Each structure stands twice: as C-alpha cells, then as structure tokens.
Amino acid sequence: MTTSLAEKPRRSYGTGGLFVRADRSGRQTWYGKWRTNGRQIKRRIGPKRGEGSRDGLTRTQAEAELRRLIAETPGAARVGERLTMHEAGRRYTRYLAASGRKPSTLAAVRGHLAHWIEPFFADRAIDGIRTEDVADLVTLMQAGQRPGGLRRTKPLSPKTIRNAIGTLNALMSYAQRKGWTGSNPVLDLELPVVEPDEDIRFLEPVEVEAVGAAATSGTYEAVDRALYITAAMTGLRQGELIALRWRDVDWTAGRIRVRQNYVLGEFGTPKSRRSTRSVPMADRVAGELDSLFKASSMQGDDDLVFADPLTGGPLAKAAILRRFRKALRVARLDDAHVFHDLRHTFGTRMAAAGVPMRTLQEWMGHRDIATTQRYADYAPAPEHEAALIAGAFRSSSPIVSAAPGVVSP
C-alpha cells in the first residue's frame, strides 16, 4: 500500500514542496510538486535516505534537486526570485510578441507600461502589489499627475484609465499563471465608469460630394477624391483603405474585399476576425475607382488602390487628415471633422436606408453587434408603429371619468 507523507514546513507560493511516498514494501521516495503556468506539476525526485544509510537523498539534497527541476520548467520563475514590475512587463510584452499580437496591441501595452505602470510601481516586486496600490495609481491618473516625477498631463478619461489598468490586469493574470505571484490585485478594484458616447459626427450625402469635389491638392487630387467617396460609401476603416489592393476590387461581383489593414507603418490582418469581409460596391464607387485605375501607373493586382502618387507606397495618415480638413474648408464645411467621420457617414446612411443591423455589422466589420447598435437611432421607424400604439389604447368600452355618473365619449 502506498502512503503519502506531506511536508511539514509551509512554503510561499511558487517555491514548490516535497513529500515522501512509501510503496508496499516500505521503500520511501522523495517527490516534488510545484505550480507553473497555472497547473500543478509533480515529479519523482529520488529515493529517500534511510537512517544510518549512505544510499538515497537527504532532505537537503532533495530540496536542491527540487529547485533545479523548478528552474528548468519552461516559464517558471527561479525559486526565491521576486520579479519586479519592470521585468514582468518585459517578459509579458515578449510573450505577446511571440503570440503574434498585432503591432497596435503591442504599442498600446508598451505605452501603458512606460507612461504609467512601470514609473508608478518602479522596482517593486509584483507579488507585493495590493489592490489599494492600484487604486492609488488610478487616483493619480484621474488627477493628471504622472508618476515618477514626470511632468503633469491633463486628467485621463475613464476609458483611457480602464485601458491602462486593463493592461495591468492582463499582465498580473499572466504573472499568476506563471507562478510569479499568488493573486491579481486588479480583480477587486472598482474602476471609473465609462459613460456611453452617443454623439456621432457624420456628413450628409451632399456634403460628401462637396468634399470630394474640393479635393484639389495637386498631385493628390484624384486619389483623395476617390478615397473620400469610397470611405463614405463602403465604411472601410482608414487603415483598410490604405491597405486596399487592386486584386481586392471585384469588378465582376461588384464588391470590395477587405483582407489587410495598415497600422503603425505595417501591413497586417484586419482589426478582428469579422473585419475580414466583403462590402457591396455601389456604381458611384466603381466609377471613381475605375477613373483612378485608368489614371494610375500602378495597375498591378498587388499595387495599392490608393497609393501615394509620389512614392507608390502607402499614404501617410497625418497627411490624409491635413488634406481632408483642407477640402472641408474649401467646401465651406466644419473642418473639425476627422476622417473616421466618413465611416460614421456610411453607418448612419445605411441605417437610415433600413439596412438590418446584423447586415450592417457584417459590412462594417464590427466584432460586437453592440457597436453597430449606435446607428440604430438613425433607422426609419416602421410606418405602423403609431397604429400599434393607438390600437393598444383603443377600448370597446367607454372610459369612466372621475365624476360619478359622467361617462367620457
């Protein structure tokens, strides 16, 4: 019969433990157990040295072998190692990069670490960080006080705070799975509430035509005009338009296929799985793209549709916004609009035309239907709604007034 004898001394999280197991004949063997990557590992260490014997392992020798095995476990912290926030952040971003995360995601994580998380926690060990410590960081962010003696900034919005603390939450969860800490202090934190922003800025169809006609920036005139019209009538994101290639324009099927995105100077996959999609190509868009194709010297399948006329490469996003606002001023429109408002234009116009929200979600590449629902207020009301309300309050019996004996007609 096998007997298990638990080790008496209690150990801190992640350092593992020894126990002895005896077989039917009474021979005893050291075993070790520890946690890493969120799972428990058990390994045979070796025979236990009996009293007065030179064979087998003493407790000290078994402890040393246990430490060696733990240290060789992929992803495990060394026994006794206390990772600082800086080192944990470095390992976490390396893990994200190895996992194939998008450059935009890596840039956001590195920004949160560099601007807030690492300066605030400095060289503190992550296994010593408590919920109240994270709450202090949130207070600084709300006040616009940068940690580590950095210059002040304006108070951060609830959404920005939640994004930064979300990075910390993901990092601490990763550290917990790795056995670097025993708890995640972010889980019990109350974060600022984000008030939904229902304000959507968009252009009317006549304004879209006006801004397209006002694209008069010399060399960029033809590409900008086609860009504005296509953005407003397909709902593609700016990065998706920049990455669009001629092979993605299906003239026969009358559709534009979204296969790539351009973010932070790199081509990659679209924002989410749903963002890989195809969108109907209206005749107006097809006409603009046809004119642009005939005027362009870059007509290969892999050439960019909206290629920079001077370089043949992708358009610069900052320059797109400058020229877009210049066109707005020429058209005597509000130059506070941003390029993304053309995407909102597509969403609001499609909703107003009665396109079902599920269909609009597919066309716009929204991962969550809740994002698409922001356009629901622009959808036309069914003609029979008023009749439904009237019918609900219609009664075959007269309504009795408060005065006794008086019946309302």
UniProtKB/TrEMBL annotation:
CDD domains for this protein: INT_ICEBs1_C_like (cd01189)
Show the Gene3D superfamilies listed in the entry. 1.10.150.130, Intergrase catalytic core (1.10.443.10)
Which Pfam families does UniProt cross-reference here? Phage_integrase
Please give a single GO biological process term from the UniProt record. Answer: DNA integration
GO MF annotation, one: DNA binding
The residue ranges of the Tyr recombinase domain are: 198-390
Name recorded for this polypeptide: Tyrosine recombinase XerC
Gene label: xerC_2
